[in-house]
């Protein structure tokens, strides 16, 4: 019986076009999903767009269109094309304007109301439209520049608004002890550790009830028992994880796909690790498997942001380096869970040293030698014991790293094979062995070891670089789709016994940074 692995990105707010911060999350989630598929797990990856709320309404009005027209345009021209550009193999894409989402939200709300977790009350607070969130004093920092002398949102660097409303509330305050118990009983529920500690500290300070409706604008899902209110965008958005897989409508599908693992940015981990599990507890649902809050991409020391003019669109990079190199760089250069700084110089250096000169050059040299010395036939001998042991160890380390969401460590394990083989070739000097008939057996072992190691590396790198790995896999005699190979058995792969010419996988690039 295959294990279930349901994994989600957050749903992205469509007030603007996506940048590489969004792409980072999408690629990471895709790598995890592809890896689990190659394990044979019953895998389902969900992504989508968050399309309601005050910020969307204001953005649409500023552009002279309706909110629906605005979201339709951005989804069709920017967000779905980005998934296609980055070769994201998601199984589903949900929009919060989908009818299935609206139906599920209403069912969920009715169940919470019947259970006594929703009431009507009045509230006044400091609201950041950019975050679509009420802020506590600890969330605000002194403004600079035009906002000097004011308190601003720490994320958007803009003043908050004082909002006074009579809304419906969710009794979040009743779940503090149960949440702390959850964190104790399942220490791997919120990861990495520094995010878990921040979440725990937030809950220990005491929780306030959550305002879950708005009546000052109408762009949202109507509260089913009071259509003068729309559901608070964050409360409604979190429900996409269950409305996409049949909640309240298709029990069999829901049972198959739930619970899920959520891959989110650390700035929204609080929503996913505090509000969302409390909502699940209130509704009597199984709690999500994991919430992983990864770090930010930093450009010039600041978080990637369109509003701060630090946003870089993925196409600016993929047009220069290619899609697989984009995916490889962001999955290997940054410890997943920590902040990471992006620079064109670092991308260029890693591309040439690790991909062009490392993996690409290794493959072309080995395949050329098998053609030259063995007429393209891979010697039918076992790999050297030390190479076989290294490959087996790398496969195990990579797979274990994925269980810890340490994608960068999994990539490092795969690339340790490449690094060792490049050194191994220098040590063994097959071009010297080929000149001595007495060394034919040694030459055969060296070439077989290299081909075997490259094939295993291709399997391990397939979730990260699907297109390049497939070309590499086919070139060393792998049969079929590399993504169909059992990844935990990558060290034991067997192929056709023949190599074919490999196309240039990572050609040298003269001008790394596009002209501005």
From TrEMBL:
All copies of domain Methionyl/Leucyl tRNA synthetase, residue ranges: 6-366
Residues holding Zn(2+): 128, 131, 153, 156
Keyword Nucleus: no
Positions occupied by motif 'HIGH' region: 12-22
Cofactors demanded by this protein: Zn(2+)
Compartments it resides in: Cytoplasm
Cofactor, how bound (note): Binds 1 zinc ion per subunit.
Catalyzed chemical reaction(s): tRNA(Met) + L-methionine + ATP = L-methionyl-tRNA(Met) + AMP + diphosphate
Entry-linked Gene3D superfamilies: 2.170.220.10, HUPs (3.40.50.620), Isoleucyl-tRNA Synthetase, Domain 1 (1.10.730.10)
tRNA processing is among the record's keywords: no
MF GO annotations: ligase activity
Domain Methionyl-tRNA synthetase anticodon-binding residue range list: 385-513
Main location (coarse class): cytoplasm
Assembly and interaction partners: Monomer.
Family as reported in the entry's similarity comment: Belongs to the class-I aminoacyl-tRNA synthetase family. MetG type 2A subfamily.
The protein's name in its UniProt record: Methionine--tRNA ligase
Organism: Agrococcus citreus
Gene expressing this chain: metG
């Amino acid at each position: 019986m295959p294990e279930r692995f349901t994994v989600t990105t957050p749903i992205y707010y469509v007030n603007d076009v996506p940048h590489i911060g969004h792409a980072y999350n999408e690629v990471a989630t895709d790598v995890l999903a592809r890896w689990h598929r190659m394990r044979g797990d019953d895998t389902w990856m969900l992504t989508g767009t968050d399309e309601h709320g005050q910020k969307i309404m204001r953005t649409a009005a500023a552009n002279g269109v309706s909110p629906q027209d605005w979201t339709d345009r951005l989804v069709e021209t920017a967000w779905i094309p980005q998934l296609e550009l980055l070769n994201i193999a998601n199984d589903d894409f949900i929009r919060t304007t989908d009818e299935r989402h609206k139906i599920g939200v209403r069912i969920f709300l009715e169940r919470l109301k019947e259970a006594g977790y929703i009431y009507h009350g009045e509230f006044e607070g400091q609201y950041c439209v950019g975050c679509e969130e009420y802020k506590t004093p600890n969330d605000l920092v002194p403004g600079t520049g035009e906002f000097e002398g004011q308190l601003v949102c720490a994320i958007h660097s803009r003043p908050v608004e004082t909002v006074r409303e009579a809304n419906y509330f969710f009794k979040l305050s009743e779940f503090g002890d149960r949440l702390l118990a959850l964190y104790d009983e399942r220490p791997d529920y919120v990861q990495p550790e520094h995010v878990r500690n921040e979440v725990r500290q937030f809950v220990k300070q005491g929780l306030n009830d959550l305002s879950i409706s708005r009546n000052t604008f109408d762009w949202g899902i109507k509260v089913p028992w009071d259509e003068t209110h729309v559901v608070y965008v964050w409360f409604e958005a979190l429900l996409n994880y269950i409305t996409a897989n049949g909640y309240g409508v298709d029990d069999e599908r829901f049972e198959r796909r739930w619970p899920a693992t959520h891959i989110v940015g650390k700035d929204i981990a609080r929503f996913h690790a505090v509000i969302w599990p409390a909502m699940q507890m209130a509704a009597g649902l199984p709690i999500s498997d994991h919430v992983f809050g990864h770090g930010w991409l930093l450009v010039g020391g600041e978080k990637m942001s369109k509003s701060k003019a630090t946003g870089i669109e993925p196409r600016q990079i993929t047009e220069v380096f290619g899609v697989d190199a984009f995916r490889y760089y962001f999955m290997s250069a940054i410890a997943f869970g920590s902040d990471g700084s992006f620079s064109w110089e670092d991308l260029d250096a890693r591309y040439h040293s690790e991909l062009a000169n490392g993996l690409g050059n290794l493959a072309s040299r080995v395949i050329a030698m098998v053609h030259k010395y063995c007429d393209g036939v891979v010697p039918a001998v076992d790999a050297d014991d030390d190479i076989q042991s290294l490959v087996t160890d790398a496969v195990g380390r990579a797979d274990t790293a994925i269980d810890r969401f340490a994608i960068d460590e999994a990539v490092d394990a795969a690339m340790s094979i490449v690094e060792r083989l490049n050194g191994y070739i220098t040590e063994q000097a097959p071009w010297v062995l080929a000149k001595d008939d007495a060394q034919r057996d040694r030459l055969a072992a060296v070439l077989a070891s290299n081909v075997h190691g490259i094939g295993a590396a291709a399997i391990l790198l397939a979730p990260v670089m699907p297109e390049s790995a497939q070309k590499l896999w086919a070139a060393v005699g792998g049969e079929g789709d590399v993504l169909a190979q059992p990844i935990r058995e990558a060290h034991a792969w067997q192929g056709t016994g023949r190599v074919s010419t490999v196309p240039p996988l990572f050609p040298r690039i003269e001008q790394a940074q596009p002209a501005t």
